[in-house]
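Reviewers of the previous submission asked for a worked example of the structure-prediction workflow described in the proposal, so we include one complete record here. The input consisted solely of the amino acid sequence. No template or homolog information was supplied to the procedure at any stage.
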Amino acid sequence: MTALVLLAANLVVAGSAAAVEDDTGTVVPMAGFGSLIVDPVHDRLFLSGGSTDDKILVTDLSGAAVGKIADESGATKLALSPDSSTLYALLPGQGAISAIDTTTLSEVARYDTGGQAGTADRPVPTSLAFSAGRIWFTYTQGDSGGLGSLDPADPAAPAARTELGQGYAVQSSPKAPGTLAASFQVAGQPELDVVDVTTGTPRITAHAPGVWSSRLVITPDGQGVATDVNGVLRLTDLSWDTDYSSFPARGWSLSSFAFAPDGTMAGEGWDGMGSLVHESVVTAQPQGTQRLRTYDFPDFQSTGITVQDIAWTPDGSRLLSVIDTMGTLRLHELLRPRAAQTSMGIAYPNLILNTGTALPESGSVSSALPFSAGAVVHISRADAAHPNGVVLPDAPLTSDGRFAFGDTPPGTGTYTYQVRYSGDADHLPSDTTATIRVAKVLSVGTDASSYAYGATAKVTAHLSVGFTGGKVSLYAQPAGATKQLLKSGTVDSSGNLAVSYKVTRGTTFTAVFAGSYDYFATTVAKSVGVHASVGGSLSGYYTTVLYGSTSYRVYHHTAKQKYTMTVAPARPGACARLLVQHYSSGSWHTSKDLSCVRLSATSSLTYSFSYTGPVGDRFRVRAESNPQATDTANLPTWSSWAYFMIRT
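From that input alone, the workflow returned the following structure tokens.
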């Protein structure tokens, strides 16, 4: 599908090697201006001087003068023969049309459009075209007028005229042989006609009352006629061609418009509602429904810029504009008229980011044309330490221009991100920047880094000064469990929101700040460890004695000692560790170290052992929850020592 294009501000001075953006253009040495036409065979431009000049200027396609055709006083409209061998110039003040050889640049004939010279009611030719081997012209004659024709082979032959109404514009095209589009005013009312001239006698084949246009252009395919107000109409019946719904004329007041050979449209002017602050040029691809580009001539109201005429170069790669700036004519060259304008926007252009938080940046490059696979945007980050920027990885563009990238700024401060799209054959480049300030906006803390099983943790979220009244939510997520909301509310005058929570396993506390108009939404987390609950007790003893302040369970030397341990939270089948020590020579020595004894289905175990040594020896035993590396629910925890001794 095709769509509207907006032109870039790429202007060129004749003789320069490259286009210069926003250049003032090439001065056209003429006192006035009538119209512009491109000779596609000789790669030349013809510019008529209008009512205040007596010549037709001839330039190359860059605007450099290559000659002039003198004695063409008051030349306005221009037309080329189908083979570009002859240029026809309308001379309204003389009631004539001149024929100019495009090779020798000399006038070879002049045709009288009729009537008696010097009389007030003499017909005044207003526009001309070439079709079916004849020169055709519209004319006015008082309150009337019509369509006239001349035989180019016989300059002395009188003009044939058919009265149809005051004639204002006529157009032909080799793609629509023997067909004219012409606009008239009949009894004060406008109308547009399609006229068959294949026989030399005009015959109206389509009629559209109420349609007014001072300029007509037949589309390159010969199927439609473009007007300066009503858009494009079908030549068959003059109905509006909806395929051209975004033709620049609709909603605009166009001073000129033109088609490139491939059907790309261009129109210059300003909108009829006066909402534009610049004189603009808009182009559209055939059968388009979206505008791709607009070029605004800078400060046209203050500098008096008016657009006189436009024309495409024969290959359609450039659009030429004749501009009147305070009485000085200039020729501008607008480059890449088919490349779609792009504009870039990002989601968070100027916000504050919490320290240590990844920048969740996203955005889009908007354009009426889709982006091809492999298109990317280039990203850099600059700060005080890196004023020239640090290059970050490119971000891919989706076909509709969306992109996303993440980056974690290395510390507090101000960072400027530049996002740049380089453009391609179908798209113009664009870029934007985002200034992000990194500060400690939100934090979450606890009153300890680890807790005993079943202890109560005090959790506090803190918003920086300036956020009094900000709303924060606090969540807890124990290991292996789902996240749960603990509290949500407004921080106090110190910026705090606190909550207490009983912990039984490792827990991550999360604080969430929804953000504001100038702050990123922020989430921070703090994880705490929680020790397991490990209990151990002896059984099978017959009495208890004290050694100092320590209680010892006493066993007969023939009895078995039984030690029972339990672990919470339950860890059935998991390893536990058992350590037995013997008191000898004034210190404790390990006699048994069982690194993995399996807990039962009830997360407990009972270990039996017997002692065959001398009576009177003292021992102690304890257990450890001994979690594996993959078990992060609780921290490893030892039970208290259980003391025992052997007697007869």
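Residues 1-23, 272-278 have pLDDT under 50 and may be disordered. We consider this example representative of the routine output the project will generate in years two and three.
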